[in-house]
Structures are given as C-alpha cells and as structure tokens.
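step: validate -> pass
step: tokenize input -> pass
step: predict -> running
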Amino acid sequence: MDRSHRDVDASRVSASMKTAIALVLSAAAIMSAHAPQAPAPAAPRPPHIVLVGDSTVTEGSGWGLGFRQLVAPEVRVTNTAQNGRSSKSFRDEGHWATAIAARGDYYLIQFGHNDQPGKGPERETDPATTFPANIARYVDDVRAIGATPILVTSLVRRTFSETEAGKLTSTLGPWVEAVKRVGAAKQVPVIDLDAASRALCERLGPAETARLNVKKDDGTWDTTHLDAAGSLVFAKLVVQDLRRVVPALAPLLRDEVAVALDEPADLPPPFPLLAGTIRSKPEERTLAMGRVYTRALRLERYARRLTHNGRQPDLAALPPLVTSPAIFVAWDYVPRQPPPDVLCEFAEGAPSRVVISLPGDAPYRESREVQPLTVTFDRTRIRELLAPYEPDHAGVRFVAVLDPARLRAPSFLQWMPTAKCPDTPGTGPMGTGALIASDDIARWLAPSATAR
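step: predict -> pass
step: emit ->
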C-alpha cells in the first residue's frame, strides 16, 4: 500500500475515533443530567453555650454579661445562673432541670461561693464529699445529653490581706481544688478562674482593684460581685481560658466587646409616667417623670431588638422578674430646681419611700395597701431589669416593680424625697407624686403591648 492510501485510511480511523468519543461523552452527559444529585453539605449549626452557676455568673452581678459580649453574634448563650445558689440548691430548686432542658452544646459550670459554711443546710456542701459529688453529677448529666461540660473554678473574692501586702485572702480554696480534682478524674476541661482572677487583682494592687468593686445601697463596697465594667474584665479571663481548653470554640470568641446592637427604629415606646400636677386639671402643667414597661411591652421590645439584629430571642436567658407579669416604672427625670407650677419636693438621690395610695386616700399619707412590691436604686440591678429591652437606661434613678393585680384606678403614686421645699423654710420633706388615672391603668393592663 502506498503512502497516500495509508494517509487516507489513517484519517478515516481518526474520524471514527472522534465520533465514538463524542458519543461516549454525550451519553455520559445525559446520564449525569438525569442522575440523582448528592445533597450539598449542610452548614454547621452555631453552638449553643449554657452558663450555670451562682450570682458571680449572672448577667446582673457576675461575668455572664461580659461573656455574652465576647462571643460571636451567631453563638447562642443561655444564662441559667441564679443569685445565691450552691451546687446543692441549684439542683434542688429545679434550676438544673431548666438548664438541661435548654439542650446546649457546651455547659460552663461554676459553683463554690454559696457552698461554704454559714449559708444554711439547704446550700452548704462539704468540699471533700458532697460538693465534688454534686459537680461530678453535673458532668454526667451534661454528657448524657451529648453535650460538653466545662468546669469553672470560682471567681476570687477581691479582699486583700491586712498582714500580707498585695495578697488576696480567700476561703474558697477547698472548693476550688475540688473542682480541679473532678475535672482531672472525669477528664473535663477546667477554666481556673480563681487563679486567673487572683493573679489579675494582685497584679493591679488594692487601689486599682477597688475600681472593680460595686457600691452597695448601704454605702459599703461589694468585693465579690461585678458591675458592667467588672463583668467584662473577668469575662475576658474566662474567654481566654475557654479558647485554650476548647479550641473548636476559638474562632467564635472575641478579645474585645462585640459591636453594640443596631436599634430598630420602630420599637414600641414605653408608656409615659406623668407627674407634677393633678391629671384631672388639663390646664395645669405635667411632666414626664419616667417610663412604664408592662410585661407585654418588655417582651415585644426584647424580641424586636434581637430579631432586627439577626438573633433568636431566648426568654430563658432573661431574669425571671423581667418575664413576670409585673409592671416596671423607671424614674429618669429629677430636676435640680422644680419648674413653676409643679410640686417642689424633688430629690436627686434615692427616695426614702415609694407607695401607692388607693382611691379615697389623701395624697402624702401612708397607704393602706403598700405598693410597689420592690424598689431598687442599685445600678447593677437597674441594668439587669432594663437592659434586655431598653438601650437608654443610664439615667434611670430608680425602678419600682408594681403588681398589676393590685392596681386600682385611679391611684396616687407617691415617692418621698429628703429635700425640703425651698419656698417654705422649716418644712420637712412632703413628697412628690403622680396621679395614675383610670385610662392609664387601662392601657397598662391591655393585652397588647402597643395599645395606646
């Protein structure tokens, strides 16, 4: 066969091979188009962290508030810590059942302060026997639901020794060591907050550490609990160690506070508290002395704030009083000099008494039925009660908690200051009040938070 014939045959073979390959590729494409597609892998769910402990873990007086600020926004944090509870009473009172029902992925557990002697038999535990047994049981319960327990030793008390300069005194040592022993025996991560907080305070020294203390209502200093600034300081210590003991959480933990919530423009406004004159005389001047928050209004504002920022509202994370049916009255305007035509007894400090006079009672007299249930002037407590749903609470002087079931219309809400009336020398403090009219109470008790 000559060369020309070989070239022609080769070209024919090459064309045939190309046709066959094209047919195979076309068939493969058709089969691929009709074949079932493998589902795309689901995005991992953001972790859910549950905080368990006493008041030094809460968001009102512990490191819980700072901790929430130091985790990524997509991380869900449920704080079930309760004031005054020990490893024993937290379980006995049902708070542990609530924590487990939250079905978190990680549980940070800290007890010790209220397990010590002097707290009563319903709370006290023995650091050699009952306390480690309680902590071990918490660990087992968390693992039983497929979650990860993380033990935290107690926040140190910021009391410096009178004999050893620059050193803190603490009686928490046996309970701290018990937590470490349980962690080693159960192979559980341990965040040694006791050691970290002790080292920080001793490095700062007594003067600088005193800035972290909280002033109590009686004027003395609280060296155990925390305000917002202290909460963030000690939460950073928790986060630093959490990053080390649980590396999987490290990308979701921050060194500085998260960006503040972007406040929605359509938050339903609180009800105004009008004071200074009798509401039945519209020609006289009235002043907006404060704001009133019903339960429905509180929860609606809370939900809107979080959903506006892409977060899931979590009622279990709120203090129980915030979700209760109570009505909160926040006083946030106390003038230095009373305006004209307004009752003159205003005080910049905390009033000595707050009552509600029932219909028929004369103003400024002792009420037959004392309201409110509680009045708080403590800045930490005010923040705990208002911050979840009200960003503007820095100027609130005090918060009164009213029982809606005991409201009668009309009523006279009265607070007794310590200032004297400048126009009547020699007189004692008389009191300042607001007439709560029938229509006001009807609005407060309406089912809808936005009823106006």
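step: describe -> The chain has two domains: 48-252, 271-444.
step: cleanup -> pass
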